[in-house]
Write a structure and sequence with these properties.
The complex is a heterodimer of chains A (280) and B (288). Chain A is mainly α. Chain A contains 13 helices and no strands. Chain B is mainly alpha-helical and 288 residues long. Chain B has one domain: MetI-like fold (Orthogonal Bundle), CATH 1.10.3720.10. Helices cover 75% and strands 1% of the residues of chain B. Chain B contains 13 helices and 2 strands. In chain B, strands 1-2 form a two-stranded antiparallel sheet. In chain B, helix 2 crosses helix 13, helix 3 runs parallel beside helix 7 and helix 3 runs antiparallel to helix 10. The chains are: A mainly alpha (280), B mainly alpha (288).
């Protein structure tokens, strides 16, 4: 018995070591971004590289926040994300409701098309989308990019909303209608309040996928009036002589909002991910 | 009596479903038809019908064959290792007696949620040949003698990208498998313990069968993501040093306005992804 206990202990210690190693590998890139972002230019290329700068500075952040394309791109990203999320929640939410509540011809085909759409390569869609938007003068506009991002967010929201609405017993709605509510009133007063947290998480997910999206934005934006943060960051690191200190400060500025938001909805998000996978 | 075109339910569903359907048709279905049609025309000859000409040219292009080999290498290795490592993390953290479960999971979770562009840029900096942190760490550990030119030689570029993709995707597997493990019924394990089942027997006869579905989903998603991955490769190598995969080939041809090649390779990429997408859909239908 004692030997078994000893063996268990040794195994646990080994596991902690492995987990610690995984933790290091996970955070080294992030730590290195942070470390570089607070280094003065002279120290960025110091050889050997140092983890803790000798003279930590916020000048890179100052540069990024006041003298670069980032604040403008940040604003563009917020607007593009807000527009695409709003449209996706409105259209995808109601489509999801129809899939969950009504039986109609084509319902199955349509909902499966929404599922497949989530797996389409954006490099394939980008070519037609570019020419279509070019035709109507929407290339290099925030609205144009927001519309293109619906390719990602609309199928996602529809599919997730369908699952959420299915989870609400039909009887609740029927009771409300018996009490004299119209369909619209039932949805607004009864169903939506029940789903507020779930729909908020879905919206946040749609927003973040727009915030992070690179491939479409890379083709559909080109000037300060529409470039989003991923594009602005990539421009930072594409110069012949890269200013890595400022690049990493920009990377931090883009990442922090995402991490904060995700941490707030982590529980719902993980549950949604798992439920989506198990139930389809 | 008047014949009903729409049933009562359909009439109710229409206003809910129609706007979404119109937008989807315009933004997803139409572009798919568009690229498909484009691939059968000669864009350098004003878009005249060209049959399979673009595909013939593509298949005889040595760059395309290289791209296919790269895509297979990239996809298989990232999927296999992300899946194995992610599952391993999930199981280690899930183990009875391991503390701070939430902490370990949250840290790994962070690696997944940071924007793809940030991941790629951070790793590009980390893997710089001279004065890069990765080489410095490996050198001080004595694992390498000379700095390794990670992203600037064909010998290492693909390997570097694969490592970064595994780093980026294994947290997703960890999350999914954790969710799967948490749904396993504890009493099954208790009765197996009472019957004196070994660790391997519990693994083989309880854990593995019950995690089959979620593993299937995970692997399909990883496959699709690997084939579709663009930003990571584009930012780190731009497809140089023999790292062009299908999505890079499509983009690079599009960029130089070789629309014949771009549309034909786009259709090839689409068909490849769709194999896995259809498997996924079949699985979902079965579950329903």
């Amino acid at each position: 018995m004692n030997r078994k206990k000893f063996y268990e202990h040794a195994l646990n210690i080994l596991i902690y070591l492995v987990l610690f190693l995984v933790l290091l590998i996970t955070i080294i890139p992030i730590g290195w971004v942070l470390s570089t972002s607070i280094k003065p230019t002279a120290e960025v290329f110091a050889n050997p590289p140092r983890w803790i700068p000798l003279k930590p500075t916020l000048s890179n952040y100052n540069n990024v926040l006041f003298e670069s394309s980032i604040p403008n791109a940040f604003k563009n990203s917020l607007l593009v994300g807000a527009m695409t999320t709003f449209i996706a929640l409105l259209l995808g939410g109601s489509a999801g409701y129809a899939f969950a509540r009504f039986s109609f011809r084509g319902s199955k085909v349509l909902s499966l098309f929404m599922l497949i759409s989530q797996m389409l390569p954006l490099t394939v869609l980008m070519i037609p989308l570019y020419y279509m938007e070019n035709e109507v003068g929407m290339v290099d506009t925030k609205l144009g990019l927001a519309v293109a991002h619906l390719v990602v967010s609309l199928p996602l929201v529809t599919w997730m909303a369908k699952g959420y609405f299915k989870g609400i017993p039909k009887e609740i709605e029927e009771a409300a209608i018996m009490d004299g509510c119209s369909t619209m009133q039932t949805i607004i007063k009864i169903v939506l309040p029940l789903l507020k947290p779930a729909l908020a998480a879905t919206g946040i997910y749609a927003f973040i996928s727009s915030w992070n999206e690179f491939a479409l934005a890379n083709v559909l934006t080109r000037s300060p009036r529409s470039i989003t943060v991923p594009i602005a960051l990539n421009e930072f690191s594409s110069f012949f002589k890269v200013d890595w200190g400022s690049t990493m400060a920009a990377a931090m500025v883009i990442t922090i909002p995402v991490i904060v938001v995700f941490m707030m909805v982590q529980k719902q998000f993980v549950e949604g991910l798992a439920a989506g996978a198990v139930k389809g | 009596m008047k014949r009903q075109i729409l049933t009562k339910d359909e009439k109710k569903a229409l206003p809910f479903i129609l706007p979404g359907v119109i937008v989807t048709a315009l933004l997803i279905a139409y572009p798919l038809i568009y690229i498909f049609r484009m691939s059968f025309t000669d864009q350098s000859a004003g878009g005249a019908f060209a049959g399979f000409y673009n595909y013939q040219r593509l298949f005889h292009n040595p760059q395309f064959l290289k791209t296919v080999v790269n895509t297979i290498k990239w996809t298989l290795s990232t999927v296999v290792f992300s899946f194995i490592l992610g599952t391993l993390y999930a199981m280690l953290i899930h183990r009875k007696g391991i503390r701070f479960k939430g902490f370990w999971r949250s840290i790994i979770f962070i690696a997944w949620i940071i924007p793809g562009v940030v991941k790629a840029t951070a790793w590009k900096w980390l893997l710089t040949t001279d004065g890069g942190m990765a080489n410095h760490i490996l050198q001080s550990l004595g694992l390498i003698k000379e700095p390794v030119p990670w992203l600037t030689t064909p010998q290492f570029a693909m390997l570097s990208l694969i490592i970064v993709q595994i780093w980026a995707c294994s947290p997703y597997v960890m999350l999914m498998m954790t969710a799967g493990l948490q749904q396993l019924p504890a009493d099954l394990y208790e009765s197996a313990d009472l019957d004196g089942a070994s660790w391997w027997q519990k693994m083989r006869y309880i854990t593995m069968p019950l995690l089959k579905d979620i593993s299937f989903i995970c692997i399909l998603m990883l496959l699709v993501w690997a084939i579709n991955e663009f930003s990571l490769i584009w930012i780190m190598t731009s497809g140089g040093q023999n790292t062009t995969t299908l999505s890079l080939l499509v983009y690079n041809q599009f960029k130089i306005l070789n629309l014949n090649g771009a549309s034909a390779s786009a259709v090839m990429q689409l068909l490849t992804t769709m194999i896995f997408a259809i498997l996924y859909v079949k699985f979902v239908i079965k579950e329903d």
